[in-house]
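name: query_chain
kind: protein
chains: 1
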Amino acid sequence: MEVIMKDKVVILARVSTNKQDYDRQIVELTDYCNRVGWEVAKVFANKVSGAKAVEERTEIVDMIEYIKASAIQRVVVLEISRLGRNTLEALKVIQTLNENGVSLYIKNYNLETLNPDGKPNPVASLITTILLEIASMERLTIQERMASGRDKYIAKCRETGVKMGRPSSYRKSDDEYKEQYSKEISLLRKGISLRNIYAITGTSVGTLRKLQAFV
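structure:
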């Protein structure tokens, strides 16, 4: 009896701070892969801002290392907007995947960056570039609105004499520390010295010593 080999894929989830949204997207992508006969080898996700550089996003760095060492046919994402903080970085990730013979599949547009013969899909390349530019423009618009709102808030506080900022008694929760310093914690877990982590991230040695409690 002939054994049909399934395509091996990894899922790259678009992760928000909302756990329900996080779970929903992974479930949706996993269900889709099962329906089309793709074997999900691994899921990569991390609760980080899409505005972070690719080098700061451990889930993308780890994913690229994994696909280089594994027989992976494609990376599956729900949408492309969080692949990188700008078009150039996102296209760099796509290029790295393509160079390793790995296609990026974007579910909400049913797009594959590689054709069945392994060559780049020019139509997908054009569409992904346009989608990334649109996402970049949307992100910039949101940032401008937030900056405008912040400036108005500061001006109003000054006019009314209201003190700005958090109460002096405020302390960050463990989850807030883990989210804010995810890269530093990841480096600590790899056994990198505090001095070298400081050189890489700029985070003070005092803060790094506190973060050792999460390792």
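note: The longest strand covers residues 38-44.
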